[in-house]
């Protein structure tokens, strides 16, 4: 059972589309959004939020942007120090500038932190055990310096469209994706990637992460086909300043390697490693994250809003071989569409074992949180559900992201406090929600532990054995209930003695349909005796009047008597084109009676039809009266065929 997860919520003044944590301090969160260009009355902004408290969020810096330009569509924290954080943002220039071929879509801002608390030696009742108390700095010069936020640069990395739009037509291309490689420290190299949205043909541009990125920092360009665009991309570091990039266009997953030292305006060598199987209604890849250079996690949406799932792909080292799906996890049915995906790597131990935390946002305003374990011996486990956060936002979520988790240095001492992982999500409803997950050291007594969200699961062999046992138990229980049910109804011999479990009244009610000789009139199930020959029906095609006269002459008045010999039963059959009358006796009569009814059992409407047919065939006349027809069995050819099928 998942523990109680702390959460905090704040509502800002505009719709939000982007968010990212400070990589050095998960107590600060950058969010951005707005109403876009125009006079909608909703401005555009970037805000720095204080998320250091688990149950409260405070807005500490508010950057109001121009309403003559587009809203913030993507956001990432690039550099951070003790005083500020450098943020990259995707903001389109005004339509006027775009029509002139100038769209400076990549912006850089230095966002200063609010005044920090300092310690001063004091004496008195408020002092702590060490004689110090925390109080806010009150220097006006310090406050003004720390609260100053400045824009650093504007750059246009995408190629300008080759064809200009028609007069009065808008340019819809914008910076849909902004993704940076994982933060490994202030001195470690990082690269970034931006991708277009709503462009005639998609484009991905990779660049070195500097404080003021420009065209001179471009490392490579990838031009997609007409009508294609990147649905999502991710970057993971390799060695010696090299990186691996994976992206998806919704149908296939492609990867390539790139170095932060080599600059080129051309496309790198790209390898397609996975393609969705061709079907009439093909699923779509919504998002992806690289778990390692050789494994990628994808979020896949089924057609027609019929659900979504997570899949782990194993990437072949080289060559044209396609990646294979090694793990799958169907997401809850209520999540008809997966909207967003993020992954946090909690670090590894000496044996290279590690745990990932996965978060998936859905169309039902919920967030599913899963864990995925990796060990060199067993590989990747299937994603295991941890918890589902329901009704997180009032409107559709636009972004979710984990904070960067940096494990404490080893050896871990008692001075190291509890560790937490934070998950932020923003929505079209102006809301920001931050959930805080407590982490546990594993194994607990170790001074060099790795941190986990939940203890590693049982080996998958045990899961398979348990699932097989449950399936076998269900089958045995179903067989037991079926045997008991058929015994009560008299369909099988009483091996279990189930008829004694019920009261006579309930047993009689349940067993009624199978009491053939008492509860289904005219139906007899004879015992099967192999040596007995099957009786043949002897049909005497005679006049009904003659048969009735013979019966009267024999004096067969009481048909129900068991002491006197029973006369042959008279049958009348309507064959469609003619009516035949015949007699049968003994077993033959019993068989015939299964598909025939006595004159007394016919409804009034049926009697009228039969009288008409008998008159037409010359078997009977009105002046003879109906009394002579009593005891005669009547049937039609269709009833006989149906009875034979039933037997």
UniProtKB/TrEMBL annotation:
KW Thylakoid (keyword) present: no
Any Gene Ontology CC annotation: Golgi membrane
GO MF annotation terms: guanyl-nucleotide exchange factor activity
Entry keywords, A to Z: Endoplasmic reticulum, ER-Golgi transport, Membrane, Protein transport, Repeat, Transmembrane, Transmembrane helix, Transport, WD repeat
Similarity comment: family membership: Belongs to the WD repeat SEC12 family.
Protein name, as recorded: Guanine nucleotide-exchange factor SEC12
Positions of region (Disordered): 117-146
The organism's place on the tree of life at top rank: Eukaryota
